[in-house]
Amino acid sequence: MSEHAPSLTSPSRMVSQLRQALPQFRRIEWVDRTDSTNADLLQWAREDNPSLRPWLRGAHLQDRGRGRAGRTWKNREGAHLMFSCAFDIFVPPQALATLSPLCGVATCEALRSLLPERHRVALKLKWPNDLLWYDAKLAGILTEVTRASTAPESKDHHVVVIGIGLNLNDAQSLSESLQRPVADWESISNECVEMLAHRPADLVAAMAAGLYTAMNEATAYGFASLPERFSQVDALLGQNINIVHNDKILQTGIAQGINAQGQLMMRNALGTQVVSVGEVSVRPSAPR
Question: Percentage of the chain with pLDDT > 70?
């Protein structure tokens, strides 16, 4: 580990730093170990829990961490920054799928705000919500929704739980084991010494605050601004891509950003195609 490697402090110290940075969060916890921070917050939301949201819960290690499409999130203590946030959201049920790319945009914007301007273009978002440093995956986001046990009868009131796993270090071994490019915050700090001033708790606080604002704005204003915001961080825009499901290529075309529902737009010989969140994964097509 280099001298620039960010390191996690004790759970109690993380809580102290986060409470100071996030006074708007009603409940903040950080533990040594849990099965899944997303599962923990989903369970809290479903219980008769009087604690007011938003909530944040992080862990140094997750035994049953989850990624998108039911994938397992592999983690090692000290190598990853893993936490979840829970928010009340008031949007129509048909708009819930749009929360996934919105959370990706808000997280990417928050981390970009910590970077010097010359480095911000390197941090991008691969639809719907994978953060990339250049072309290597830096972080993944899992967005899940449930009904609150104490929610009123309004069909528009839900609790959204957003889990984030960001690689702090260990990218080289992850790249080798996963057979794909992986980035970590240590390598970013080595390229950009200004980042040494930011502790892991500062990264968490920036992302959590960005999500807090995004959820409030979605409730107040909807998602009309999402396509333009997404275009500013889009890692796929203009690229030839394959739409893949269960390792089978379903469609090929050129990425055209997203619509106000958060769906990926793709142009091919058949015209403009719409790809829905949660049905497919996207991979850059191989060069001819």
Answer: 85
Task: State which CATH number among 1.50.10.20, 3.30.930.10, 3.40.50.2000, 1.10.760.10 fits the domain covering 11-231.
Answer: 3.30.930.10
Query: Taking 80 as the threshold, does the pLDDT of residue 67 lie above it?
Result: no
C-alpha span between 263 and 278 (Å, rounded): 10
Identity of the amino acid at 283: R
Reply yes or no on whether the pLDDT at 222 is more than 70.
yes
Q: What is the 3-state secondary structure (H, E, C) of the chain?
A: CCCCCCCCCCHHHHHHHHHHHCCCCCEEEEEEEECCHHHHHHHHHHCCCCCCCCEEEEEEEECCCECHHHCECCCCCCCEEEEEEEEEEECCHHHHHHHHHHHHHHHHHHHHHHCCHHHHHHEEEECCCEEEECCEEEEEEEEEEECCCCCCCCCCEEEEEEEEEEECCCHHHHHHHHCCCECCHHHHHHHCHHHHHCCHHHHHHHHHHHHHHHHHHHHHHCCCCHHHHHHCCECCCCCEEEEEECCEEEEEEEEEEECCCCCEEEEECCEEEEECCCCCEEEECCCC
Assign domain 240-284 to its CATH architecture. Roll (2.30)
Q: Is the pLDDT of residue 242 over 80?
A: yes
What is Dmax (Cα atoms) for the chain? 58
| Residue 245, pLDDT score | 78
Q: What tokens were used for 265?
A: 């737009």
Better pLDDT: 52 or 287: 52
**Mean pLDDT, rounded, of the chain:** 87
Residue 232: closest CA among 97, 100, 123: 123
Q: Domain boundaries in the chain?
A: 11-231, 240-284
